[in-house]
Recover the amino acids of this structure.
């Protein structure tokens, strides 16, 4: 049943990329347990504006867990305490009256803070540009049913493609590694017949760009997958590592 | 037809129009393409697919989106699927049937030629998407799977669980990013378009604000494509993303582009009901659920009351005491009637007192019957001849989970109720806008060089869009229509050199944008932007929502005018224009909604008939169905803007040569 909570928030405030930043504390009262975490921030921001204070900047858009915009690091966990949900789908019934909640931005060299809780994740776009596609132009593709794809492969490719690119994997990793994100895309195409022609070139180029962006190395702690709101599996990292190894040893590599 | 509106529909048989047009439209040679610049605003299905396709052809493309990445555009949230006339199921589908269903579904208020072209290219979209690695759902034999959607009796909807929009957008996005990698597309994320620039009557560029630095920028283009989505957020509460807005389209409108059928908005029947005042947005439960779920309310008022007061549970109500009102009223289509019909039917039951939640504004969507049906099929497959009821239910739940797992999870997350155990509660919510910028057959607005694609234009869905047709239209426009039709204009622009952004038209437009920003920041009133947005949303929802009438619309117009005046004298926008300022972004968008809202009501007031999503209470049949007036209102209402929120109506007559128009019946 619906209840109301009184909460203490400690929120990271940072004016811009050059500012050092610090935590600020806010008390919020009468928060309905039916609210989403972001709606609680709406209430707080509304109050801050009315009090002539600067509202807290945070990324958000669809508020149904699919666009990947929201990115709060809540009490030491990306997207907060609940498994398998983004911040926008985290509801206040996951908290108790009187709780202190600490909210930070994603922390990673490759994700510089723009303001408050907003970070720059354009590194992910550049990794996709380096090879996260199938090189076909728009035109007369062959009939969609011309190549049957085993259901298990299609399902596994879909499970990888369900990644929303939010960056929680990077935020969760002590090395700020982007291996789960990159491997999800590599894996999706590696499982599909359409992805085969560029399979090994793709993995080489995406990994090279990932390294260039300053993401850390993978030490297989598995925090990325544990914190992923879409449950992207570590097996994709294993598949990417295999493909990367094959690409490195292949004599066909230019 | 007013001379200002030339739809440029090609001559010839319906079936031949597009083929013939494609083969004769002027071309631009590859060398000239390299010196022609195209600006695309918005990176959803229409924008991303257009950007990738045009860049592949060799044009120089710039893409703008307000989100931090092109991949976040709201197409990503589309759930159920995409229609295509593939006839893979051998159930009688064809290009003509998809065309016919779409025209009928739109209640005979869409253009025949545009819709036929849409149906024609629909099959290519599936081919293109599969080739680019989109992992659609498949059967065990490896072929593509289909599901049913509203308003049709064939299975032509392709899907990827409840995340079809995500998968299609990521497919188009990967094509776009590939072109970013080659340098053919320059991407401007976290940028918002705040005006279009016209020179000598032609569109020549845009003014955009870098949302991170706050700086205004001028960008030249030989053509500008608005792929900026719909305006459902005028209602404040909708299934749109928080940032979805009308600003790009509205600025174009104020520069002379006509806005067509603004009152045609879609209220989707299956959304999670409003839970409280804090609510910031509404969440859709995909129409595909109506394929497997049955919609009902109690047949007895006392049961409805007991439910609302929490004295009984839905499962306490016996089968014979349930009213499956869609199956009762529309036996031929049942739960799969089009969205406008399903929404009105839900409103009718709730208004009559049969609503099932504490606010009285909810109906049940129940999966129990199909869970058992699926369970029995699974038992047969496994050779279990006498399964227990528990086994059947467990196996059935597993099937439902595979089909709709993410939707059920989302429902539970938001409501705290487990939909595998209890029926879902749903209620209609604003979802899509059929109206938009008026475009001709080439997708060009009445401003030469300015185009509108996807939900931003008005062209294909008439007064009501069928489910799984938005994704189809967005990708059709971007992948398969604009790459051809833009040649008709750009082939005449090859001698136009890039115009310097020091041109006075750019300077003037930037100055106006700056003035608006300065004005918003200088009001320093006492109410937040959201305060006004919520008030506006309520006015429009109550008077220009699922049901409209003359008195209500007239009141709404004056209420919106008064609210707009108050906004401009008492809104409080904190901070400065330098750097990231999300309140300032919202303020600019709400200012535009406050003008659009008035035009929507004006359009609804002028259209003295009911059609599709536009239901005027004065015009209905004895059974409460929409009553069209084809004699007087079989036209597109295109509104021209004049300074000071004045409008003039232009009419484009709709001509049906191939379809015999009739009262829409789903009985």
């Amino acid at each position: 049943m619906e209840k109301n909570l009184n909460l203490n928030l400690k929120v990271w405030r940072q004016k811009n990329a050059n500012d050092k930043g610090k935590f600020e504390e806010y008390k919020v009262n009468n928060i309905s347990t039916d609210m989403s975490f972001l709606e609680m921030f709406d209430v707080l921001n509304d109050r801050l504006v009315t009090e002539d204070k600067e509202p807290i900047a945070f990324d958000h858009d669809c508020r149904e867990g699919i666009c990947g915009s929201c990115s709060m690091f809540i009490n030491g966990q990306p997207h907060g305490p609940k498994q398998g949900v983004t911040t926008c789908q985290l509801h206040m019934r996951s908290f108790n009256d009187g709780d202190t909640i600490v909210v930070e931005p994603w922390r990673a060299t490759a994700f510089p803070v723009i303001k408050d809780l907003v970070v720059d994740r354009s590194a992910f776009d550049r990794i996709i540009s380096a090879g996260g596609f199938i090189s076909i132009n728009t035109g007369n593709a062959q009939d969609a049913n011309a190549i049957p794809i085993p259901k298990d492969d299609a399902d596994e490719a879909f499970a990888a493609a369900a990644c929303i690119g939010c960056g929680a994997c990077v935020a969760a990793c002590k090395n700020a590694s982007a291996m789960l994100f990159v491997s999800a895309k590599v894996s999706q195409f590696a499982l599909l017949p359409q992805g085969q022609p560029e399979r090994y070139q793709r993995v080489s180029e995406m990994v090279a760009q990932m390294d260039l962006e300053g993401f850390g190395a993978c030490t297989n702690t598995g925090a990325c997958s544990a914190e992923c709101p879409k449950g992207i599996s570590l097996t994709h990292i294993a598949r990417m590592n295999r493909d990367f190894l094959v690409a490195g040893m292949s004599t066909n590599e230019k | 037809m007013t001379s200002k509106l030339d739809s440029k529909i090609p001559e010839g048989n319906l079936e031949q129009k597009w083929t013939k047009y494609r083969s004769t439209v002027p071309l631009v040679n590859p060398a000239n393409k390299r010196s022609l610049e195209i600006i695309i605003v918005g990176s959803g299905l229409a924008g991303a697919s257009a950007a990738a396709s045009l860049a592949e052809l060799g044009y120089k493309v710039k893409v703008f989106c307000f989100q931090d990445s092109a991949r976040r555009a709201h197409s990503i949230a589309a759930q159920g699927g995409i229609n295509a006339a593939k006839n893979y199921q051998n159930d009688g589908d064809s290009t003509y049937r998809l065309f016919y269903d779409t025209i009928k579904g739109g209640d005979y208020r869409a253009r025949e030629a545009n819709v036929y072209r849409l149906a024609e290219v629909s099959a290519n979209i599936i081919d293109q998407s599969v080739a680019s690695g989109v992992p659609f759902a498949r059967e065990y034999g490896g072929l593509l799977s289909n599901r049913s959607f509203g308003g049709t009796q064939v299975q032509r909807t392709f899907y990827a669980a409840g995340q079809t929009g995500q998968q299609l957008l990521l497919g188009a996005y990967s094509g776009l990013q590939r072109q970013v990698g080659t340098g053919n597309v320059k991407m401007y994320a976290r940028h918002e378009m705040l005006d279009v620039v016209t020179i000598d009557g032609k569109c020549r560029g845009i003014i955009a604000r870098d949302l991170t630095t706050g700086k205004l920028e001028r960008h030249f283009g030989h053509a500008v494509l608005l792929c900026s989505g719909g305006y459902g957020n005028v209602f404040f509460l909708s299934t749109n993303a928080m940032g979805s807005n009308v600003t790009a389209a509205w600025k174009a409108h104020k520069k002379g582009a006509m806005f067509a059928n603004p009152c045609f908005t879609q209220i989707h029947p299956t959304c999670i009901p409003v839970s409280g005042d804090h609510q910031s947005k509404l969440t859709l439960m995909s129409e595909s659920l109506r394929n497997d779920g049955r919609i009902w309310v109690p047949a007895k008022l006392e049961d409805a009351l007991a439910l609302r007061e929490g004295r009984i549970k839905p499962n306490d109500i016996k089968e014979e005491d349930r009213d499956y009102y869609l199956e009762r009223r529309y036996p031929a289509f049942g739960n799969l009637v089009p969205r406008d019909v399903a929404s009105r039917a839900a409103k009718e039951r709730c208004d009559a007192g049969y609503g099932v939640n504490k606010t009285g504004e909810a109906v049940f969507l129940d999966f129990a019957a199909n869970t058992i049906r699926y369970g029995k099929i699974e038992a047969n497959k496994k050779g279990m001849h006498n399964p227990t009821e528990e086994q059947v239910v467990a196996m059935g739940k597993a099937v439902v989970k595979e089909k709709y797992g993410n939707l059920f999870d989302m429902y539970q997350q938001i409501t705290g109720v487990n939909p595998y155990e209890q029926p879902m509660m749903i209620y209609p919510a604003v979802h899509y806008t059929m109206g938009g910028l008026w475009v001709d057959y080439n997708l060009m607005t009445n401003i030469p060089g300015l185009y509108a694609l996807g939900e931003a234009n008005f062209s294909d869905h008439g007064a009501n869009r069928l489910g799984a047709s938005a994704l189809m239209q967005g990708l059709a426009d971007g992948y398969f229509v604009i790459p051809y039709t833009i040649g008709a204009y750009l082939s005449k622009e090859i001698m136009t050199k890039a115009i310097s952004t020091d041109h006075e038209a750019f300077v003037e437009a930037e100055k106006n944008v700056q003035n608006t920003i300065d004005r918003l920041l200088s009001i320093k009133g006492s109410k937040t932007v959201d305060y006004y947005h919520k008030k506006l949303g309520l006015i429009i929802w109550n008077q220009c929502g699922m049901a409209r009438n003359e008195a209500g619309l007239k009141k709404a117009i004056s209420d919106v005018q008064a609210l707009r005046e108050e906004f401009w004298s008492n809104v409080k926008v904190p901070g400065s224009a330098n750097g990231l300022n999300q309140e300032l972004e919202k303020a600019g968008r709400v200012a535009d909604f406050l003008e659009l809202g008035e035009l929507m009501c004006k359009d609804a007031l002028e259209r003295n008939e009911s059609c599709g999503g536009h239901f005027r209470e004065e015009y209905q049949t004895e059974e409460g169905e929409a009553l069209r007036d084809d004699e007087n209102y079989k036209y597109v209402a295109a509104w021209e803007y004049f300074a000071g929120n004045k409008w003039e109506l232009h009419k484009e007559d709709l001509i049906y040569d191939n379809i015999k128009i009739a009262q829409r019946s789903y009985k």
